[in-house]
Amino acid sequence: MARITLRQLLDHAAEQGYGVPAFNINNMEQGIAIMEAAIAVDAPVIMQASRGARSYAGDIMLSRMIDALTEMYPAIPICMHQDHGNNEATCLSAIQHGFTSVMMDGSLKEDAKTPADYDYNVAITRRVVDAAHWVGASVEGELGVLGSLESGAGEQEDGHGAEGALSHDQLLTDPDQAVEFVAATKVDALAIAMGTSHGAYKFSRKPDGDILAMNVIEEIHRRLPNIHLVMHGSSSVPQALQDLFNASGGEMPQTWGVPVEEIVRGIRHGVRKVNIDTDCRLAMTAQFRKVAVGSTSEFDPRKFLKPAMDAMRDLCRERFELFGTAGQASKIKVLPLAAMAKRYASGALDPVIGGVRVAAE
After folding, report:
1. Which segments within 138-198 are labelled E, that is strand?
2. Disulfide-capable partner of 256 in 94, 203, 242, 326 (CB 3.0 to 4.6 Å)?
3. Is residue 328 part of a domain?
4. Distance between CA atoms of 300 and 302, rounded to whole angstroms?
5. Which range among 84-88, 112-116, 150-154 shows the weakest confidence by mean pLDDT?
């Protein structure tokens, strides 16, 4: 099956009431693990690459890898998504290399460290939307700055993340402003800030409403019921993986991620894309350590990578099943980019605000 755009996939998810995990990738092994999980449960796939991943693997390698996975698993629609684009060039070059969706993260300036003001965010996001929609690709925007409500700070990941202290207002997306932002930018999906952050060390205790503001999701969904919401920094950091990592020589302090039940709650209130990276890394590296400790003479990298792939496959499958993604791939008829471009041009995909479709300017 051909590559699918994020908009088409999330439209289907909204119609059927499920969420889609978006797994970050850097290499072939991660890609195969995701696809093996998807084919086992008939789930559509979002694979996303950060700027760090694109630098590590190279755009040509990533693009050819997705081509190969599409050919190897023809029954599964794959959305290839640019995660946390920092400027127009990052986003548009991703589309040139076959990405069907991009995130323009205008919550931070081009350095991906300095919080940006609202007007900057609207302007740069709208420019990317106009260019991407012209060729049929989808755009995810972000309003509010990703970071911890406990510490008042962002978390660096692959060179992305706010530096310095952040105010409570910056760390929580304002629902009124969300309505204005969607109308002004015409994004296909909106990532919101509600206390999640990148990396493994999200919370110092099991999160409650004081540090994981699920009420923000619910209020934005109430005001924007037709907009696809995105939860970033939503790895759950399972205790079993932490224990295996540490039992095999690791030194990970006790930490808490986003509970799966809270993600499922978000899906009931308009969350359609759930970003997961740390869980996949931890599943794989725990196996690397286990093999290294248990077979000290082993030097064949395949003996490390195969159990790591199996562990990531099992984790991805579990997320597909818990988020309701399982069983959905075969129900989707993929539209080509050209068809999506025509739909954008006709206004059929313009956002609906308060029951009124936002007209093209």
Report:
1. 138-143, 189-192
2. 203
3. yes
4. 5
5. 150-154
Query: In angstroms, rounded to a whole number, what is the distance separating the alpha carbons of residues 345 and 133?
Result: 8
The residues, ordered by sequence, that sit 6+ positions from 240 with a Cβ below 8 Å of its Cβ are: none
Q: How confident is the model at residue 158 (pLDDT cuts 50, 70, 90)?
A: low
The predicted pLDDT at position 361 comes to 58
Q: Is 248 helix (H, G, I), strand (E, B) or coil?
A: coil
Parent domain of 303: 6-349
- Of 11, 59, 67, 83, which residue is the catalytic one? 83
Cα separation, 298 vs 80, whole angstroms: 35
Q: What is the distance in angstroms between the CA of the first residue and the CA of the last residue of the chain?
A: 35
Contact between residue 292 and residue 304 where contact means Cβ atoms under 8 Å apart: yes
**317 occurs within a structural domain:** yes
d(CA 277, CA 25): 8
pLDDT (tens digit per residue) in 208-232 = 999 999 999 999 999 999 999 999 9
Joined tokens for residue 237: 């950091």
Number of domains the chain contains: 1
Q: How many CB atoms lie within 10 A of CB 15?
A: 9
- Cβ neighbours of residue 99 closer than 8 Å, sequence gap 6 or more: 49, 80, 81, 82, 137
CA distance 135 to 345: 10
Residue 359 domain-assigned? no
pTM above 0.90, yes or no: yes
DSSP state of 336: P
Angle between helices 301-322 and 260-268 (to 10 degrees): 40
* CATH number where 257 lies: 3.20.20.70
Helices and strands (H and E) in the chain: how many: 14, 10
Q: Is residue 337 part of a domain?
A: yes
The dihedral of CA 338, 347, 11, 25: what is its sign?
positive
> Is 83 considered catalytic here?
yes
DSSP string, 265-302: HHHHTTEEEEEE-HHHHHHHHHHHHHHHHH-TT---HH
